[in-house]
Amino acid sequence: MYETYGKEADFYWVYIREAHPLGSSRPSPLKIEQPKTFSEREEIAQSCQAGLNLSVPLLVDDIKDTV
């Protein structure tokens, strides 16, 4: 969709609270801890973006989960 409509509309990935962190009842196979600071959340988001080869711009929610 981004490739088709990216020039007509804005698309973003928004990285929010980790849904399946280590220690949860359903941890992710990626073994990601819930970040405690915005810097940690931003680092994890950038790592996910690179690892998944996402071309859509990435936004990161603040550590208080305002979004």
Structural write-up:
With 67 residues, this protein is an alpha+beta fold. It has one domain (2-60). It is built from 2 helices and 2 strands; from the N terminus they run αβαβ.
In short:
The chain is of the alpha+beta class and 67 residues long.
Helical content (DSSP H or I, runs of 4+): 25-40%
Main sheet properties: 2 strands, parallel
Which strand order do you get reading across the main beta sheet?
A: 1-2
Q: Tell the overall outline.
A: globular
Number of domains: 1
Q: Structural class, from helix and strand content?
A: alpha+beta
Radius of gyration: 13 Å
Number of helices: 2
The averaged pLDDT comes out at 92
The ordered H/E elements are HEHE
Strand element count? 2
Which band does the percent of strand residues land in?
5-15%
Distance between the termini: 23 Å
Low-confidence region ranges: none
Write the layout of secondary structure elements.
Blueprint lengths: L1 H4 L7 E3 L22 H14 L6 E3 L7
Structure keywords:
alpha+beta, 2 helices, 27% helix, 67 residues, 9% strand, two-stranded parallel sheet
